[in-house]
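Q: What structure does this chain adopt?
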Amino acid sequence: MRIVKLKIDDKVTEFKLPTSWDEVSLGQYSKLMLSIEKEGISEIELMIKSLNALVGIDESLLTKVPIKQLREAYNQLGELISTNPNNELSRVVEIDGIEYGFIPDFDDFTLAEFVDLDNYLQNSWDNMSKIFAVLYRPIKDREDNKYTIDTYTLKDIKERRELFNDRLSIDTIYGALVFFCDIGRKRIELMQLSLKSQQKSQSIMKVKKMREIV
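A:
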């Protein structure tokens, strides 16, 4: 962390700026990406929203900071933003002594997992904690690098997503995001095509039966 001093209403206050991605939570990173990807965002808006996302300074307070100090703080933060988090896949992460394992085999993907992930991916950065709550689940059994995870249930998502949002650093799970975008998304798209093909076949059969009745 790096200390930055900002003048707000004639009072100088110290804030901590992250200097590495392991100091940034999943929730903070998601908030940052939502800001960066916003169309038509101005330079000032970007500075304010980035500092709000990664430092936690209220936007209303940032509007009172002298523009020179605001720019200096953002430039320091920019040193981090200009880099990417660690893209190595962490198959197992630990929080408070509990191990959570990344889905071992996407070939075992259930329909429930597919449907929920497909819905979450429609607004991915808004739902990033939900996506990771599906991808990472408590490990039931483990032997060396092999493990099994809890069966997927929707009711467990809320508690896990809040935990991941606040306690998982983006540096820990960014690799899983990259992996899922490359591999998992393709699996989902294939499943979508398969389901559409089945639905189309079912529709054709229904039309044929209707014609026979007529």
